Amino acid sequence: MILGHLFGIYTHPKQEWRTIDKEHEGVTKSLSHILIIATLPPLFAFISSVFIGWKIGVGQPIYLTQASALSMSIAMYFALVVGVFALAYLSYWMSHTFGSTPSYTQALELAAYTATPLFMISIAALYPHIWFLMIAGLLGIAYSVYLLYTGVPILMHIPEERGFIYSSSIVTCGLVLLVSILAGSVILWEYGLGPQFSH
């Protein structure tokens, strides 16, 4: 079932990882999960930037035009989906170094369910205050990292000690991907695809 593991990864993550490992629902289910969950950050970002306004310090909220927010939300959606697939590929590529021989589907499942808390915490954008978003973002990252560290030994079938180093390598790759996405955004802004503010 699409999104069938959603409840489990929050209530009993280790047990849910074992269920995911046992079932291996395939690329189609993982892809469906990613495509649905990845809609949340762009959706909430669009709503908050167009209808609520971003509050930075004192002063009036900052709004984006609908056209600008829509184009940026679409770009964000594709960047998130590509980022999950890239992280899955890097996890798959590094696996042999750590004595694991997963299929790409296993690596994709790991990336998809690990990214889920980070994507879902984007609901915090409906209260767009910097301090609140920073706290919510840290909580989302922390739980995603926790899922990664608990999921790697189970899904990749390696000892926990080796899984810790493997997970740390994946976290490093994830940070590199994030920096690459941010750098790509800045480059696009230089070509006139940046935000347009409404007054």
UniProtKB/TrEMBL annotation:
Keywords, alphabetical: Membrane, Transmembrane, Transmembrane helix
GO CC terms in record: membrane
Statement: the UniProt record of this protein carries the keyword Transmembrane: yes
Family annotation (InterPro entries): Yip1_dom (IPR006977)
TM spans (from-to): 34-54, 74-95, 107-125, 131-152, 164-189
Signal peptide residues on this chain, from the entry's feature table: none
Residue ranges of coiled coil: none
Domain Yip1: 7-181
Localization, UniProt: Membrane
Principal localisation: membrane
Domain of life: Bacteria
Membrane topology: Multi-pass membrane protein
Protein name: Yip1 domain-containing protein
Organism: Photobacterium indicum
